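Follow-up to my post from last week.
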Amino acid sequence: MYDKDKIIPGLIIFFFLITFPLWYNLGQAAYESPKPKLPVNVKKCIEDTEWMRANHMELLNEWRDMVVRHDMTHYVNSAGVNYEISLQKTCMKCHTSKKEFCDKCHVKVSVSPYCWDCHVAPEEVTNGQ
Amino acid sequence: MSAVYSLIIVLALVLVAVVGAGGGGLHALFGVVIPYVAFVVFLAGFIYRVINWAKSPVPFRIPTTAGQQESLKWIKQNKLDNPSTTWGVIGRMVLEILFFRSLFRNTKMQLKVNGGPSLSYGSSKFLWVGAIVFHYCFFIILLRHGRFFTDPVPGCIEWLDKLDSILQIGVPNIYITEFLIVGALLYLFLRRVCDSKLRYISLPADYFPLFLIMAIVITGILMRYFIRTDIVAAKDLIMGLVTLHPKVPETLGTIFYVHVFLVSILMAYFPWSKLMHAGGIFLSPTRNLANNNRMKRHINPWNYPVKLHTYEEWEDEFRDVLKEAGIPVEKE
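User reply:
Got it. Predicted complex:
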């Protein structure tokens, strides 16, 4: 083998770069899935849980457009129940804490929705945070 | 036809994942076993190829350069295109690897026939633009996926993710790189198809990686915006893989397994294909050797000690015969 002094260090650097996730997560506590705090007294969200898990961001985006652009303040879900369109008054009536609910998953997968550029999270405000 | 074959192979691979993970429910195979195998093949194959290249001797400095070499004092040397020092070579390699300088010099030949034939060479930067957009997008997308492979997610990956989605269009935010990579891939594909000369020299090995990467990009975009899957479960699976405690969440959609299967195929295919230019660029003799042929003596690496038979020895051997024939000898 020729130019060992350059190729071997190069391959070692390559190896460590490519296996970065393996050693980055070493020595840390085992990975745990986020467990958002679920509401205590309400069992059903406005749509079913699986659907909400995948599509809540799109629903919120639609809600924003409905209220801001089309002056529609009510949403009728697939079961025919009528809800007021409001992040703070509807969503966060049950999911009271942004920190304990929203942030749990968002932080885990590094998503930072810009809801909070305008909205305030009720519980965090009352706690003076 | 090469393009059609490649397309059929990629579609067949998608079908394998759809049938296997979706219909057959072989989630552990598609989510754990195949990615592990593919990663090991990628890593071992990459190192094997580089070491294999390193075993072949580099015969001599090859000064294929595009600038004035070091010469007399009053002749200005082009230190980056024709370096004679190690630092110059590092400069040339940096330009080559980060900015694709050789491709930047790409020219196009044109023969104009009207009013007598005239041949002209013009600069052609399209390929360079397409290549650089594609490569940087691929790189950013790769780094961005770090958010599924690390916990907590390092600040630089979060920052990159935010920068890429800075337009804040739609929910989830659209990434700039998604548009750019699709555009660049389309260009790289159409370039091969539209130019008859290029079409003639294009092989399935040229089309297959293009289609494969395109399929990966498409499944990724579908998964993010259209056929959503539970990304928290996706992180569960990936973190299981990287902490070597694999687990298979129940809630992952087929689209995730298709995406992962195609990426696994890409990883396993990588070391044995033209994609190895990723490692090969570091070992290009025309780029990584200083043009110091006239300053340093370079000995052919495959020279072996040759058994010499000098004139004196030859004369000793045949002295009697030479004398007898009346041929003059140097030593009596």
